[in-house]
Amino acid sequence: MRTSHRTVWVSAVAGVAAVASVAAFSAFVPAQGGQDQSIQAALNETHAKFKDLKEGKNADYIPALAKVDPNIYGIALVTVDGKVYTAGDIKSEVSIQSISKVFTMAKVMEEQGPEFIEKTIGVDATGMRFNSIVSVEFSQKALGGPEMNSLVNPGAIATTSMVKGGTRDAVWTSILGYYSDFAGRPLSVNQEVFKSEAETNQRNQAIGALMYAYGYIKSKPEQATDIYTEQCSVNVNAKDLATMAATLAAGGKNPVTGKRVMNAKNVPYVLAVMATAGLYDDSGKWLYHTGLPAKSGVGGGIIAVAPGKFGIAVISPRLDDAGNSVRAQRAIQEIVARLHANPYEVAAR
User: Fold this and answer.
1) Reduced to 3 states, what is the DSSP secondary structure of residue 7?
2) Torsion on CA atoms 32, 38, 43, 45, rounded to nearest 10
3) How many CA atoms lie within 13 A of 12 on its CB side?
4) pLDDT tens per residue across span 269-324
């Protein structure tokens, strides 16, 4: 009965978001001819507003991330018709980190269907830290089954293990190619970050072993953890991330390249998990203020998706205590408000 309830709930979340998005579309799009100016102005003014914000600090549990320039600050917005708007530094690259989880989850949904993710990992927020081992034990022993999600580390490592491929190289080539299709250009791994993370990921190795012990990972837990570590080390800039988000906003078709990357019917399931678990412990606060599915990474990036309208990304490495970029949160919230892009915003009648 629990599984049936989750299915109805996730479908309802996706459905409500889609209906609300359509209702809000007219509020987002100004009169023809003014859209370009209003979007660019929103980005420019927001970039200036938070340019001197210095709150938070770089992640340092991965040594290479502590060395990233904390002053990187770039904003990009890509509409579903392929228009690209930017402000600030969109050339500097950071490691994608946990934002990668969204696209590996999407990959497994494409290969095996959204129901597979729901039944084997789960689609519920854990209410615990993103790298919690207790959440695995609680899901298994107290809840009696898959009650996690693919956007926290235990679920993410298990999800990576589910990507099809006969060899490690085949799995990795498939994942990196998929990310590149979303970004609209060939992406590559930051080898310094990969090495640094691989040398300090003992907790994730333990999580992988536990997920294997409980049957979430069927074989080769060490390989799953290693590939997961490598996917988190892929380099991206703000435009890459915005294009990836816009591909989801456009129903799985990259609006810049025109390539269909994902089946449109699977996109709502991805967005539903992003909405409930995308910003770690603060996912509820994020949804409360923006109404948009989103995902953060400890490299300093955040993506958000306005379905049917645009994808937006901000990179700024200084994080809050939950592991989310302080400046990226503020900037996206500001732009969403300026563009009236919150799908739950309804004009007074």
Assistant:
1) helix
2) 170
3) 6
4) 999 999 999 998 899 999 999 999 999 999 999 999 999 999 999 999 999 999 99
96/300 Cα distance (integer angstroms): 8
CB contact at 8 A, 131 and 153: yes
pLDDT for 148: 85
CB atoms within 10 A of CB 222: 12
Question: Residue written as tokens 């923006």?
Answer: 290
Cα dihedral 205, 97, 14, 17 in deg (nearest 10): 150
Sequence-ordered strand ranges (E) for 36-113:
74-79, 84-88, 94-95
d(CA 38, CA 338): 9
Q: Give yes or no for a contact between 279 and 301, defined as CB atoms under 8 angstroms apart.
A: no
Angle at Cα 269 formed by Cα 234 and Cα 335, nearest 5°? 65
d(CA 219, CA 80): 39
What pTM was estimated for this model as a whole? 0.89
User: Residue 77's closest CA among 113, 104, 114, 38?
Assistant: 38
What does the alpha-carbon distance between residue 316 and residue 76 come to, in Å, rounded to a whole number?
12
| Structural element, H or E, at residue 26 | helix 2-28
Residues with Cβ < 8 Å from 337, sequence gap 6 or more?
A: none
Cα–Cα dist 99/95, whole Å: 9
pLDDT in tens, 190-241: 999 999 999 999 999 999 999 999 889 999 999 999 999 999 999 999 999 9
Distance CA 143, CA 116 (A): 19
Alpha-carbon distance of 38 to 44, in angstroms, equals: 10
Determine contact, residues 342/293, Cβ cutoff 8 Å: no
Q: CA 148 to CA 222: how far, in whole Å?
A: 20
